[in-house]
Design brief:
Layout (H helix, E strand, L loop, with lengths): L5 H18 L3 H10 L24
């Protein structure tokens, strides 16, 4: 019997929500949000791009 990993489900849900929210924004909006999150000004820009590790699994 497979157990449900709530942490994985939560992460997937959060990533999907972020992906949907970013579809309505342009590149400049993402940069603006990153710059807003940077304080003090001497810190580097906090912009991050979501990535998925590894390649897709192939089925034959």
């Amino acid at each position: 019997m497979a157990t449900v990993n709530r942490a994985k489900e939560s992460l997937r849900k959060e990533q999907q929500e972020q992906k949907q929210a970013s579809r309505g924004k342009g590149r400049d909006a993402d940069l603006h949000e990153a710059l807003k999150g940077t304080f003090p000004a001497s810190d580097p820009v906090a912009s991050q791009t979501a990535t998925k590790p590894g390649a897709k699994k192939r089925t034959h």
